[in-house]
Amino acid sequence: MPERPEQSAAGRFDTVLIANRGEIAARIQRACRELGLKTVAICSEADRHAPYGKTADSFLCIGPSTAAKSYLNQDAILLAARLAGAGAVHPGYGFLSENAAFSDAVEKAGLTFIGPTASSIATMGDKISAKRAMIAAGVPCVPGPDTALPDDPATIEHIALEIGYPVIIKATGGGGGRGMRVVPKADVLHEAIALTREEARKAFGSPSLYMEKFLQHPRHIEIQVICDDHGNAVWLGHRDCSMQRRHQKVVEEAPAPGIAPDIIQPVGLACVQACLQIGYRGVGTFEFLYEDGAFYFIEMNTRLQVEHPVTELTSGVDIVQAQIRAAQGHGLELNQGDVTCEGHSFECRINAEDPETFLPSAGVVTHLALPAGPGIRVDTHIHAGYKVSPYYDSLIAKLIVHAPTRAEAMTRMREALADTEVEGISTNIPFLRALFEDDAFSRGETDIHYLEQWLKLRRAA
Ligand code: ADP
User: Fold this and answer.
1) What are the φ and ψ backbone dihedral angles of 120, each rounded to 5 degrees?
2) Which atom of ligand 1 is nearest to the CA of 127?
3) Cβ(240)–Cβ(312) under 8 Å?
4) Cβ–ligand 1 contact at 25 (below 6 Å)
5) At CA 19, angle to CA 238 and CA 423, rounded to 5?
6) What letter does residue 256 receive in the DSSP assignment?
7) Is 168 in the pocket of ligand 1 (CB under 6 A)?
8) Cα–Cα dist 273/336, whole Å
């Protein structure tokens, strides 16, 4: 008799349902297969011909093309898991990956959620409770109170004055770069609060806001952690994801250039401490702004991230396999002392979009040539003849390189980009090629605003 899901407690699942699509569905399936696990792929009607469906042990269509009716439909996913005999669900990134109710529903159905508990997701999903947990663990945070803004205008003015202008108003339940507003000076404070409150109420279902110092030229630096269920946690080094357009990362690298080990070391250890204090399990990322030699925590992502490969290539750890093993109840296979990060890695997100206007570009890929060679990795689900659907995120591939030094990794990426050909749809490859020729980027002298400014200058030229 097949094992019933009720019996598939941690450590005993042998079949994983991958509740996602695209490159990450392919990536997770590979990790499962290498661990000897069976896989269940799911799809919406638009993804019926996804290549990872053919290599999965089961492939089930769970709903129409609209994500709300398929990849976000919790009941349909749980039904598919039951029908296919899955003992665990891997949420990937996006979709339901940071949905505490989904983590709870998966566990209540007797399956293992490959990710943290619902309570960890909920704590970290609320920016104020996350900030409080970080302060308690000694993680440095952006100056500003760890409480929601009161209603009284005079008290709000006082808080802003204490922090010092410019300040940023953020929705407690915000995400995806939405629900925040910079306030340069006192006379626009109340208007900014009213607007952000209304946005937060509409977008996140809660009008709760908080205020912190607005940092003017920070870099985005993040720390990858992995934890087991036995009280062990390690950090796997750091990444720089400052190259952003509209708060969306475009290029990531590991390690973050020019950060002295004695500056980052205590921050990494504080992240580990925070994980232990909140009983975190699985993989997670602590995101920081870094300015004038200091780190300021902004949020924790309680899931696998798009940019995990740059850390895999520098640390030598297969993060997806480690995540699955932790969910199986296995202890971590490495101690902090075993973690060594070598060389330098870059990732380019290849998006199906116009390189000038950034408008999404759907259609059939008529020709595809991917680079290969030492230190080159491509994570993708597309092939010649693949139809890029307009329904989802425009990420079609991740091009990742690794080399002994940052300069060599940049050269390797330039060559890899030169060898990449995608025809039939537009992609951002021409834009990525130009970016890898940029001097300031080559020197590692960029902050989170650099890419937007660079684009503005290019348009003006
Ligand atoms: P989200 O959850 O919506 O992604 P974050 O808190 O991670 O929100 O912030 C998203 C981006 O907004 C950051 O990467 C940074 O570019 C900017 N940002 C957030 N907080 C600040 C701040 N205090 N000062 C300057 N920029 C900020």
Assistant:
1) -65, -40
2) 6
3) no
4) no
5) 75
6) P
7) yes
8) 12
10 Å CB burial of residue 124 (0-12, 13-18, 19+) is: buried
Copy the structure tokens of residue 453. Answer: 């400014």
pLDDT at residue 117, rounded to an integer = 96
How many A from CA of 277 to the centre of ligand 1? 24
| 446: phi then psi, degrees, rounded to nearest 5 | -125, 155
CATH superfamily, domain 143-213, is ATP-grasp fold, A domain (3.30.1490.20)
- Give the active site residues: 303
- The 3-state DSSP class for residue 219 equals strand
Q: Choose among 289, 295, 267, 275: nearest CA to 225.
A: 275
For 199, the token pair is: 């946005």
CA distance 208 to 356: 37
Q: 11 falls in which pLDDT band (50, 70, 90)?
A: low
Bridge partners of residue 400, in order along the sequence = 347, 377
Span 271-306, pLDDT tens digits: 999 999 999 999 999 999 999 999 999 999 999 999
Backbone angles phi, psi at 267, to 5 degrees: -70, -45
pLDDT band, residue 461 (cuts 50/70/90): confident
Sequence ranges of the domains in the chain: 9-112, 143-213, 219-460
**Where does 9-112 sit in CATH, by number?**
3.40.50.20
Contact 176 CB / ligand 1 (< 6 Å): yes
CB 448 within 8 A of CB 220: yes
Which run of H or of E encompasses 22?
helix 22-34
Q: Please report which helix (H) or strand (E) contains residue 156, including its range.
A: helix 153-163
Instruction: Note the pLDDT tens digit of each residue in 302-328.
Output: 999 999 999 999 999 999 999 999 999
Ligand 1 proximity of 169 Cβ (cutoff 6 Å) = no
> Cis omega before residue 166 (within 30°)?
yes
Does the pLDDT value for residue 4 go beyond 60? no
pLDDT tens, position by position, 224-260? 999 999 999 999 999 999 999 988 999 999 999 999 9
Bridge pairing between strands 38-44 and 58-63: parallel
For 39-72, b/e burial (b = at least 16 CB within 10 A) is bbbbbbebbeebebbeebbbbbbbbebebeebbb
Cβ–ligand 1 distance for 290 under 6 Å, the answer no
Which CATH number applies to 219-460: 3.40.50.12100, 3.30.365.10, 1.10.1740.10, 3.30.470.20? Answer: 3.30.470.20
Q: Among 233, 213, 243, 238, which Cα is nearest to 288's?
A: 238
- pLDDT of residue 364 exceeding 70, the answer is yes
Q: Best substitution site from 289, 299, 303, 446 to test ligand 1's pocket, by max atoms within 8 Å of Cβ?
A: 289
